[in-house]
Amino acid sequence: MRKIDSDILIKADSYIPIEIKSSALSLQDAILNNLPFIITVCIVAFSAFVTYCISKRNIESQREQSINDRKANHENKVSEFRERWLQDVRNTASLLLSTLYVCQHHNMARSVSMSSATQALQRGDQEGMNSALKDSKEYYELYVLELGKFHEYSGKLKLFFNDDDASKELFKLIKDAGKLLKNQKIQGINDDISKDITLELQKILKTEWEVTKNREWST
After folding, report:
1. pLDDT digits (tens, 9 = 90+) for 122-137
2. Which of 158, 212, 213, 218 has its CA at 20 to 30 Å from residue 89's CA atom?
3. CB count, 10 Å around CB of 133?
4. Number of C-alpha atoms within 13 angstroms, CB side, residue 187?
5. Which residue, 133, 107, 117, is CA-closest to 190?
6. What is the pLDDT of residue 3?
7. In this structure, are strands 16-22 and 8-13 parallel, antiparallel, or unpaired?
8. Is the Cβ–Cβ distance between 135 and 78 less than 8 Å?
9. For range 187-209, the mean pLDDT
10. How far apart, in whole angstroms, are the C-alpha atoms of residue 188 and residue 193?
11. 43 and 58 in contact (C-beta within 8 Å)?
12. Region 23-39: what's the mean pLDDT?
């Protein structure tokens, strides 16, 4: 039997091996023998973990940015709508106040024409009376036309507001003015009516503008 100096014991009859016996490796030896592979696996695993963390953070950041962008767009749209709403209220209110003045003017002119017709009748001036009556009729037709516009603008203005306490006084003033015009109880130009409506509108518009201005709109 020949003996070879090695960790592996070989028993051979002549030159043909008949038994190979290897001693078991310890855990430490196994780790040392596979250390490069283990290090490579650890590096790959750590890289994958780092990549996952970065990707997750980027996804969360993009999600948060998307939410902020949608919120900013929404707020900017609301801001635009409110500014447009305020301008529409101003325009409609201006038209209403204009028709209120014109209604009073036509009604006053009609009253003057009726008075002239009465005086002409008393003087026996038939031609003057007919001319005054003609003028009175024309002013009345113009008055009715403007009265229709007054109610149109007052109705449109009411659609801009909710039925709340903030606008209640305004529409009470407008309703009262409409009754006076319809019943032809305003014989001259009553600026106090327009003034009261204007002051009430200014209060409401100032409040609404402050709400718009104080909001944190995004740019």
Report:
1. 888 889 899 999 998 9
2. 218
3. 17
4. 5
5. 107
6. 47
7. antiparallel
8. no
9. 85
10. 12
11. no
12. 68
pLDDT of residue 78: 67
CA 202 to CA 68: how far, in whole Å?
35
**Structure tokens that stand for 151 in this block:** 């109610």
> Taking the model in full, what pTM does it have?
0.62
Tokens of 105: 């003017």
Name the burial class of residue 103, with classes exposed (0-12), middle (13-18) and buried (19+) by CB atoms within 10 angstroms of its CB: buried
Q: Give the model's pLDDT for residue 57.
A: 80
DSSP class of residue 7? S
User: In the chain, what's the furthest Cα-to-Cα distance?
Assistant: 167
Q: Are 121 and 192 in contact (CB under 8 A)?
A: no
Cβ contact 189:98 at 8 Å: no
* First-to-last C-alpha distance (Å) of the chain: 94
Question: What span, in angstroms and rounded, lies between the C-alpha atoms of 181 and 183?
Answer: 5
Question: Burial code of 158-167, b = ≥16 C-beta within 10 A, e = fewer?
Answer: eeeeeeeeeb
Distance of CA 215 to the CA centre of its chain: 11
Q: Which two tokens stand for residue 159?
A: 């659609």
Nearest to 92 by CA among 206, 166, 197, 15: 197
pLDDT digits (tens, 9 = 90+) for 125-181: 889 899 999 998 999 999 999 999 999 999 999 888 887 767 889 999 999 998 888
